[in-house]
Amino acid sequence: LWAKITADSSLGSYPPVAAVTLESIQTTFDDHWDYLPAGRKKYIHSVGAVCKIRLDISEKSPYTGLLSPGSVHGFIRMGPAVKLDENGLNPGIGYKFFRTGVRSGNFVSLHKLDVGFTWDFFSVSQSNHIATPTGAIAILGEKFAQ
Fold first, then answer.
1. Which among 143, 87, 144, 142 is positioned nearest to 120, based on CA atoms?
2. Integer angstrom CA distances of residue 119 from 16, 80, 103, 129
3. What is the C-alpha separation between 79 and 95, in angstroms, rounded?
4. Mind listing the pLDDT tens digit for each residue in 5-34?
5. What's the pTM?
6. What is the number of alpha carbons within 13 Å of residue 85 lying toward its C-beta?
7. What is the rounded CA–CA span in Å between residue 8 and residue 137?
8. Are 110 and 77 within 8 A, CB to CB?
9. Mean pLDDT (whole number) for 136-144
10. Sign of CA dihedral 110, 114, 115, 117
11. Cα angle at 47 between 42 and 52, to 5 degrees?
12. Looking at the DSSP assignment, which residues form a beta bridge with residue 108?
């Protein structure tokens, strides 16, 4: 998979975010594929950086699976939600951890549904559960809740 990721070093583009309403969000959140399906566009977080990661879990961890004691390897993809403007970016992160015999353990995190509000990617906490958006952004929140 790393060879596929690094095969194309060209910069991505920012398609119109409103077009996200034309595709199902469930493909992104529920299918857990290791790649973007052929013919599917990435409307949000369409530009980002990917790197390999190793997550070291404490020997005292009471959890099983990905969070059991030891190390797990995967990828992290960091990118702004939409095209950058003078106000900054809305950082989002995708995590992919490989497992034997089952699909990868994937999840995404975000601070909030909003556009540019910081230039420091790590200045805000990230979560896979965010507050209900209000105002114009609430429309996008409805799409994510489908």
1. 87
2. 22, 10, 34, 22
3. 12
4. 899 888 888 888 778 777 777 766 676 677
5. 0.80
6. 8
7. 32
8. no
9. 72
10. negative
11. 105
12. 94
Q: How many residues does the chain have?
A: 146
Computed on alpha carbons and rounded to an integer, the radius of gyration of the chain in Å comes to 16
Q: Which of 128, 129, 115 is nearest to 45 (CA)?
A: 115
Distance CA 13, CA 58 (A): 39
pLDDT of the residue at 72: 92
pLDDT at 25: 72
Q: What are 23's two structure tokens? A: 């595709």
108 three-state secondary structure: strand
Supply the pLDDT for residue 66: 87
What's the half-sphere exposure (Cβ side, CA atoms, 13 Å) at 7?
5
Whole-number Å distance between alpha carbons of 75 and 28 = 16
Strands (E), 1-146: 49-57, 70-80, 91-97, 105-110
- Residue-wise pLDDT for 75-114, tens only, equals 999 998 888 888 888 889 999 998 888 888 888 898 888 7
- The answer to whether the CB of 133 falls within 8 A of the CB of 114 is yes
Number of alpha carbons in the 13 Å side-chain half-sphere of residue 36: 12
